[in-house]
Amino acid sequence: MPEPQRIPVARRRRRPTRGGTVLSEELIVTTALELIEAPGGSALTVRRLGAALGCDPSAVYRYFADTDALLLAVADRLIGESLDGFAPGEDWTEELREFARRVHRSVLRHPRLATVRASRFTAGPAEYRAVDIGIGILLRAGFAPADAVRHYHVFIDTVLAHAALDAEVRSLGDARREPDGPTWTDPGGNLPADAHPHLRAVRDHLPVLARSAFPDVLELLLAQFRARLPE
Question: pTM (2 decimals)?
Answer without folding.
Answer: 0.83
